[in-house]
Amino acid sequence: MEGERSLVMGKYISFPEDLPGHIGTLVLNLVDPATDAGSIARLVASSLGTLDSEVAANIDSDPLIDYRAQRPWVNYQAGQLTGMWREGLALSVVKDVEGTEFLRLYGSEPDFHWDSLVADMLDVVERFGVQSIYSFTAIPAPVPHTRAADMMVRSTKPDAQSDGLDANFWFQASFADYLEYHASRLDIPMTNVAVRVPMYLAGHHYSSGAVGALSMVGKISGLRFPVGDLQHDVARQNERLVELAEENQELGQVIGAFEKDYDEKGDTPGFVSAPDMDYTVPSVDEIGRAAEQFLAQVDSANERPHVENEFDPQGLARRIDEIRRARSWRSDQQDQGRNGWQPPSAPHAQSGKPDDTPEPEQKDEPESQDEQSPDDPDSSDSGKGKRWGRHSWGFGKN
Fold it and tell me: Compositional bias (Acidic residues) spans (predicted)?
């Protein structure tokens, strides 16, 4: 049994028995608010979250997240806590706007056990036959929002004809950087797109940069991502920045200085502008087929029962259920004692126990589905055999 389990279980990632087939592209879209300049990663996540997807594997996020740094959120309503939202990671099979499948790792950047998770991700690459990996980064820089978003493209297999940034420096790595370094040791192609974000927008959102990042990854990978909502937001943001520059003279001067410096220097070596999106307009028949497929998926989703906490590697949900059943059993026993209990006969008196303090009848506790303690790290396979469905986390659509 132990050998059989090792075939379907990683340290933090477990796979369904009916593993999806070959999927050649993996997109990393992890969010760390502390380093997500211009909210690029979060904007990309909101865009990719609109695509049709299904769970590719379950990830045990509990050991990976520092809940003191990324505390769960709870919902207070009328004197009670009625809901909870917590950080986590998920791996899904996603279809782009033209129906091409790719893998997407998304959620919160992990705080702990990066080596183990990298090993699990390399296992994902092997199991799905991934041929290329893509990630996103944001860099605050003295550039104006009034010029096209530009970015640096870094790859473990650089194009001989492309010019990289001629520099040598150290910087603090993201998990995607950490994975990229180890992937390069195994000759696995991985590409990072690092968007330059205007410094005055680093603490806000820079939709133009998110559009540029998605456009660049789409051009390299051949995937087609939804950017319509982001493009509308770009227009609204630009209009608002014009108003703010008129109201705030200092902001207007900063933008003007960045524009002048950008135009005088021209293209920065090592950085490229975002490519234009080249979507083809679908025919009426194609739109009709897409609508029928979407409605069929909605009907199928409505027919499936909703199951909460179905993936429970730490055993918390299982333990709560055991306590509820035990309490229900004790409550039934108390009801029997109030409604029809008869004191035992003479043998109790002979044993030295007073007649008015009888010994309650012994009854076996209901057996647990799993004898392991919830705190036992080996209980992480307690979710094996359960239905594979959507996560109960609240950070986005799977």
Answer: 367-379
pTM of the model: 0.72
Residue whose token pair is 């087929």: 289
Distance (Å) of CA 262 to CA 62, 381, 392 = 45, 55, 46
- Non-local (6+) Cβ contacts of 157 within 8 A are 189
Q: Could you give phi then psi for residue 104, rounded to 5 degrees?
A: -135, 120
Give tens-digit pLDDT for 356-376: 444 444 444 444 444 444 344
User: Counting Cβ atoms within 10 Å, is residue 369 exposed (0-12), middle (13-18) or buried (19+)?
Assistant: exposed
Q: For the segment 319-333, what is each residue's pLDDT rounded down to a tens digit?
A: 777 877 887 776 666
Provide the terminal-to-terminal Cα distance of the chain, rounded to the nearest Å: 31
Q: Which of 39, 32, 45 is nearest to 94 (CA)?
A: 45
Which regions in the chain score pLDDT beneath 50? 1-9, 160-161, 301, 303-309, 341-398
Give the CATH number, domain containing residue 185: 3.40.50.10900
Q: Which domain holds residue 198?
A: 2-303
* Number of structural domains the chain divides into: 1
